[in-house]
Predict the 3D structure of the following.
Amino acid sequence: MLTLHTTDGGTWFKPGELIEGRASWQFDEQIDAVEVRLFWYTTGKGTQDVGVVRALRTDSPDTSGYRDFSIRVPEGPYSFSGKLITLAWAIELVALPSGETERLDLRIGPQPVEVDLS
């Protein structure tokens, strides 16, 4: 079981702000590692792109545990939605090597809504 949340429950962050939160896990057997990743991704027409901004790895974690995290938001790109493409942000907790994930969708930009380009 994986859980992920920000300290204040927020999902909108301005460039330069800190995203602080906690990643928790509970497994039936030992795993190799867990990673907390801040990343952006595109959806829509064409090839999907993904950019991992920061990854915080914990090797050989206990089968049950947590990690507090603090990740600074980069200056861009902003979250946006257009007719052909959308750029979204998320934080995910990944169990390795199984690839089990928990994701928290975010909005990154100067305003609490994604930029609408349509």
Remarks:
- The first strand starts at residue 2 and ends at 6.
- The CA atoms of residues 3 and 24 lie 5 Å apart.
- The two ends are 38 Å apart (CA to CA).
